[in-house]
Amino acid sequence: MGKITSVRAYANNEVAYIAWDIDDRIDDCLGFEVTRIILDDQGNDTADRVKCAAWVAFKGQRNPYWLPQDTGVWPIQKMSWRDLTLRKKRRGAERRPDEVRVRYEVRPVGDVKPGLAPVPGQAPRTVTVAKRDSKGKPVIGANGKPVMIQDKEYSGQRRELGYLGPAVSSNKIHVTRHRGKFHSTFTNGILAAQWLGNVLLEDGIVGPNELIEKLEDPADPHRKYLAGDVLPLLREL
After folding, report:
1. 4-236, CATH topology level
2. What gap in Å lies between CA 68 and CA 52, rounded to an integer?
């Protein structure tokens, strides 16, 4: 049976790219669980271990609100992944600090069966979301505001998974905008487009010019979130 032979990770100041290789087909493999581990100043593991976020559901499941699950629920069904939540938190306009060191572990998973250690997980939770029509657009109520409902964060039954092999670690990487004489940063505008749509609906309504007003306000937290480290870097020049 095949196994993971190597894992490599690379990062800029916002996201990480992780890729791995196998020596042969891994029988019954449905994908890979990817876990981020924060390191201390000496390069040792801390207790901060988080499974990376994923958005692509299994066949028979749907993710209509585009809410993330971790890769123990929806494993990565290819040989590479971008950790978009390395700095950006999954929910809310918050970012983690840079100048940290991390590594990743990648582990193959398949349907659980006798002899396999089960992948920890939980059934879909109930969340408050804007009701959407068949085209995915928010349903507007008589008061002119989107209709908010309680619903499962994704539809379909949770697929019970088990580990098909041990976790393999990546190299250690430094999350920084400083590369020798060069400083580079990136905005979060494109990557956060769907996230921003959910943020604007958090209060149940998207007002006229709400997004424009946010982007024009230097103190707005969502503008700061989307700008990333670009504006602070410009002020350093």
Report:
1. Immunoglobulin-like (2.60.40)
2. 9
